[in-house]
Write a structure and sequence with these properties.
By secondary structure, this protein is of the alpha+beta class. The protein has helices spanning 17-33, 60-78, 80-85, 107-115; strands at residues 2-7, 36-43, 47-54, 97-100. It has one domain: Transposase IS200-like (Alpha-Beta Plaits, 2-Layer Sandwich), CATH 3.30.70.
């Protein structure tokens, strides 16, 4: 199980409700095609948190590569106005954060954290 954070290119605030919906739909399609299960998806204005589970034959790098490439392509197809906000370039920034999540340790804590993305902090 992995906690993955991907930022939009230039940390631009392009993750509107429409783009959030596209990301969630595309992730469901990815889950059907690849053996990647999305347990939680949390979006903020400029980055996305994924909590995913996958088979051992996919390296963490490969999982991120699949997610970033397919979601970017679909976002540009379904919401072309986003491409203009990013000056016609890439959707995702070059880097990403990834960490493993233990089944018996911090899984619930990470699920809570990912779920609360984009909500005002009190």
């Amino acid at each position: 199980m992995y906690h993955i954070v991907c930022a939009a290119k230039y940390r631009r605030a392009v993750l509107s409700d429409a783009v959030d919906g596209i990301i969630r739909d595309v992730c469901l399609e990815i889950a059907k095609r690849y053996e990647i299960i999305f347990l939680e998806i949390g979006t903020d204005k400029d980055h996305v948190h994924f909590l995913v589970q996958s088979v051992p034959m996919y390296s963490p790098k490969k999982i991120v590569q699949i997610i970033k490439s397919i979601t970017a392509r679909q976002i540009f197809e379904r919401a072309p106005e986003v491409k203009k906000q990013l000056w016609g370039g890439q959707f995702w920034g070059d880097g990403y954060f990834i960490s493993t999540v233990g089944k018996y340790g911090n899984e619930d804590m990470i699920k809570n954290y990912v779920n609360k993305q984009g909500q005002p902090r009190v």
